[in-house]
What does this fold into?
Amino acid sequence: MMLHALISGDRPRSRILTALLLAIFLGLLFAPFLFPGVRALETAARISVFILLAASYDLLLGYTGVVSFAHTMFFGMGAYGVGLASQHMGRGYGSLIVGSLAGAALAAAFAFLIALFSLRVRAIFFAMITLAVASAVAVLVSQLSSITGGEDGFTFQIPRALGPANRMGEFMGVQITGKILNYYVVFFCSLILFLVLLRIVNSPFGRVLQAIRENDFRAEAIGYRVVRYRTIATCISAAVAALAGSLFALWLRYVGPDTTLSFELMLDLLLIVVIGGMGTIWGAVIGATLMVLAQTYLQDLMGSAAEATAAIPLLSRLLDPDRWLLWLGVLFILSVYFFPAGIVGRLRAGR
Amino acid sequence: MPTEFLYGVEVVLNGLMAGVLYALVALGFVLIFKASGIFNYAQGVLALFAAMTLVGIMEGQVPFSHLINAIFGTEIHHFGWHIPAIAAILLTALVMVALAWCVHTFVFRHLVGQEPIILFMATIGLAYFLEGVGDLMWGSDIKTLDVGLPQGASFWIEENTAFLGGEDFYGFFIDKLDIVATLVAIALVAALVAFSQYTKQGRAMRAVADDHQAALSVGISLNFIWVLVWSLAGFVALVAGIMWGAKSGVQFSLSLIALKALPVLMLGGFTSIPGAIVGGLIIGVGEKLFEFLIGPAIGGATENWFAYVLALIVLVFRPQGLFGEKIIERV
It folds into this structure.
């Protein structure tokens, strides 16, 4: 019952999906103990952040039916907020909190302005406007190098307790360092915000958003102010994205345009949401996990596959790690082809 | 005439030339978007692929030589011939048609009726795939593309315009390649317009762009038209690839010109061919002039963001772009 309340009554509605979600949840929860090693922890943290980011994007794309290209801009605002605050106010929890809140507030304000300008016209132009704004901001950030460190970005200090130098003894055969503590901060913050998002999409407010997605004119006719609902959804989504950015910056102890603002990141995000399944927050979990794993381990996997097939020259050459872009492209096309409703949609339909 | 003014004119001329290239890339987008509603993210990679193929054919490079050598234990890399540019361009055009057929048959035919965002995703996958295939086919090294187009500053123009200014004006400095690019682009657009206005296939193409179902009901084959449209986009990409490749070498950054074309599309409207051209010219001239006039005052390097800001301002007042179709929402 408590679990039911926690996930806001939005059950996965498919056995396989439930099993997958549980596996991902447990995997992330015990990541430092199950998968030792720096790289595995890095991947786990990245998955946590991207689940949150993708879920916040799904609130906009999947639930409200608004296509935005500025989501990584909001993500970046949170990241730069934490980075700049830590740099100028000194290391400490205060600057982390101030930085993330300022980033989230700025993102929400920006989102409000953009929404006000463009959402009245038609949802598709929102996509164009956000694309223009995001591109302009990305270029400006890399040019204002005195403030933002330009293309290189900058590193900053976080509280000592969260750094790798903080050793706190051993547990289950694993050396507990500040890095692991940091991971749990990232993980639990992502988890809480994720549950909040789940609550939002299953609230009456979320239902109105879905109604707007299905038929905005009818929603208006029933008496809901469509523009207002869309605007609020945009602001919430932007603020959560900024918080995800803050967590990401906290984890990396670095901010830069490539990790937070780039157009490639925006495309990854779109893919995560579409592959996972639009219009269901659980899709974000599956999509983000798959995407990050593919990006991190596809090259490794291909490397070992190439070795395994060394006897067959054609296959081993095709599976060479240098070819990973080719296979990523094939994966995309196939997943769009076989799961147009996303993996979650497919699993639910095949129940 | 005051020298300052003449420099301004030179900046405008150079801007026009740059704009032509932007327009070329944007044109490929518009063609596909109009006929099938697909926002083709792969257009830039298409240009890259075309340019690579052209270089490969001209140099007599063996495609997939890496793979072939691995399988048969051979050491072939070159056929040992050099094909004249014209023949190579024609062959490349054939390759682009084959590619268009493959793209349609293996990917988009199965995705008919999906949501636009799904189609967009598929083109992203296509872009990655093509980049990978291009790499596999022709290798990843930077190549120089020389199809015999004149290059370098035109001395004729420089000498014959020097009289316009005073002592310290040496005439307009204009790259010959830019002039050729402009002429080719004009010819290409004229050919496209003629094709779509006066040929049967062209009319069918416009009919499909207007209304899929109506076109289908009068017996136009959608499959054929979509292959045709992708082929045309491939030709446009080939021309754009030749021009950009001749300017700065054939390398993977060529695929980024797609991002340069986005503000052009926003400005001109996604469904308008004149819009793509005028939008390209406006942005080309605009960013050069802005850099020339206002750039020094605010620290320069304005070319990177000017286009997006301009597009943004236009979008706020005219969401459909300068030439886009008026959107009338019927109740």
